[in-house]
Design a protein that fits this description.
Helices cover 70% and strands 2% of the residues. By secondary structure, the protein is mostly helical. The protein folds into 2 domains: 63 residues, Arc Repressor Mutant, subunit A; 139 residues, GntR ligand-binding domain-like (Four Helix Bundle (Hemerythrin (Met), subunit A)), CATH 1.20.120.530. This is GntR family transcriptional regulator.
Length: 228
């Protein structure tokens, strides 16, 4: 694994964010629960500062609701609202893959191949957290290879909002291996310069993640509310 694709050590705030997101999505902290920073700091064995940062990030993702002069609470996002974000994400990432197939540099090709190999190694180990870190790098390299700064920023912004959901759905049985296979197909299309195929494969890859999440949500205990 190269330094460029090696998963970086998460900050305390990022670790707290992942644990808090897991607790919310698993139903351990059900919708409507008060998010008390002091209690969470004790629960996770950290100071209130990283908890405050984690709460802020999850509020941006829609998992937590914060209102002026009121206590933060676990949000009640609907399944449809999350899946709508995945639909938009699929189109943005598909466009990134399309442009990457046309514009990727030799350096980008090498980095993408290494990231794909590193992700495969973590998938074989079954290490969801390590896989997710390298997986992020794989996608980011495709954003960069598109050579469209505005598209890269907007795609990354929505990806950040969906981060808790994407990490959690990675724990669905068998999803790690399938995701790894899909990465290989996307990479092959990009390296072959097959722009349309790269876009189609990437869109399908992201949409499937939304479908996996929906299957997870429909299994009790739900962490999200269904719409009627």
């Amino acid at each position: 694994m190269t330094e460029q694709t090696r998963p970086r050590r998460p900050t305390i705030a990022e670790s707290v964010q992942k644990r808090l997101a897991d607790d919310i999505l698993s139903g351990e902290l059900p919708p409507g629960s008060v998010v008390e920073e002091t209690h969470l700091a004790e629960r996770y064995g950290v100071s209130r500062t990283p908890v405050r940062e984690a709460v802020r990030r999850l509020a941006e993702s829609g998992l937590i609701e914060t209102r002026p002069r009121q206590r933060a609470v676990v949000a009640r996002p609907t399944m449809s609202s999350v899946l709508e974000m995945f639909e938009v994400m699929a189109e943005l990432e598909g466009l990134c893959a399309r442009l990457a197939a046309r514009r990727i540099t030799e350096r980008g090709r090498v980095a993408l191949q290494q990231a794909c190999a590193d992700a495969h190694a973590q998938a074989v180990k079954g290490d969801v957290n390590a896989y997710y870190e390298v997986n992020e790098r794989f996608h980011e390299l495709i954003y960069e290879a598109a050579h469209n700064r505005y598209l890269e920023q907007e795609t990354q912004r929505l990806r950040d909002r969906l981060r808790p959901y994407r990490l959690h759905q990675g724990r669905s049985p068998g999803r790690l291996g399938r995701s790894d296979d899909e990465h290989g197909e996307v990479m092959a299309a990009i390296l072959a310069g097959e722009a349309d195929r790269a876009a189609d494969l990437m869109r399908a890859h992201v949409v499937i993640q939304g479908d996996v999440l929906r299957d997870f949500i429909l299994r009790p205990p739900p962490g999200l509310a269904e719409t009627g």
